[in-house]
Design a protein that fits this description.
Blueprint: H1 4-15, H2 17-42, H3 46-54, H4 62-77, H5 82-103, H6 107-111, H7 113-128, H8 130-135, H9 138-141
Helix pairs in contact: 1-2, 2-4, 2-7, 4-5, 5-7
Length: 142
């Protein structure tokens, strides 16, 4: 098992500091957005409650959904569990797609927004995590 210092050095050498920092910034943007979303659900913001009820969620479940999102974000932020966090966030965002599909919201602005956001979550992780890059490497599949 390689140490954290060896891992960080390997990451910088294999991709470059600029790409790693870009990944951190992209991931930071995603985290801030999802933290805002989860906290507004937990504190029962009136606008969020109205929008969530409009999607068919019972008012009592909205803070629970916010707490689940917050837990997924925490798992994503921790470097050792970031891949699991990205998978959990992908599942959460898939639920958002399904919710919007069910009520027939506009395709590009509402239904696909969680897909766009999932791409941002994985792009940030790809740039800052060597294991993700190795997994998705084209060399591996040839």
């Amino acid at each position: 098992m390689e140490s954290a210092m060896d891992y960080n050095t390997t990451v910088r050498r294999s991709l470059g500091r600029g790409a790693v920092w870009t990944g951190r910034i992209i991931s930071g943007f995603a985290v801030l957005f999802m933290l805002f979303d989860s906290i507004t659900k937990i504190i029962r913001n009136s606008y969020v409650m109205k929008a969530s009820v409009g999607l068919g969620y019972p008012p009592a479940m909205i803070p629970v959904v916010g707490a689940i999102l917050l837990a997924c974000v925490v798992v994503y932020v921790i470097p050792r569990t970031s891949i699991i966090g990205a998978v959990l966030l992908t599942g959460y965002l898939g639920g958002a797609v399904a919710s919007n599909l069910r009520i027939g919201t506009p395709l590009f602005s509402n239904i696909l927004f969680p897909v766009y956001f999932g791409i941002i979550v994985w792009a940030g992780l790809y740039l800052r995590n060597r294991r993700v890059r190795e997994f998705f490497s084209l060399k591996k599949w040839n």
